[in-house]
Amino acid sequence: MDVFLATALLRAGDIGDMLRRAPAQARAVDARGLTALHWVTRADPNDGRAVEVALVLLDTGADVAAAAPAQEGMRPLHCAA
């Protein structure tokens, strides 16, 4: 499982484990230029697991200003709004 799949499944514990071993994964991008933080902003905002995942990502260095070039420069905050 990679950080993107763990994020899609809202598995904060797995993400935390992955990021302790490889902190750079908090800023990794997928083939579309999206970070895991972009991914979690698309989850149900009423699902507390999404908030937990976002906090794990942010605590390990996820970039809230990361622009996704293939997505017209969308940043995680744009996706969350």
Which structural class do you get from the secondary structure elements?
Answer: mainly alpha
Shape: globular
The CATH superfamily name is Ankyrin repeat-containing domain
Our measurement of the CA-to-CA distance between the termini, rounded to an integer number of angstroms, reads 28 Å
Question: Would you kindly provide a written description of the structure presented here, covering whatever features stand out?
Answer:
By secondary structure, this protein is mostly helical. It has a single domain (3-80), classed as Ankyrin repeat-containing domain (Serine Threonine Protein Phosphatase 5, Tetratricopeptide repeat, Alpha Horseshoe). The protein has 5 helices and no strands. The protein has helices at 3-8, 12-21, 36-41, 48-59, 76-80. The protein is globular, with a radius of gyration of 11 Å.
Keyword list:
81 residues; mainly alpha; Serine Threonine Protein Phosphatase 5, Tetratricopeptide repeat
Summarize this entry quickly:
This protein has five helices and no strands.
Task: Walk me through the topology.
Blueprint: H1 3-8, H2 12-21, H3 36-41, H4 48-59, H5 76-80
Helix pairs in contact: 2-4
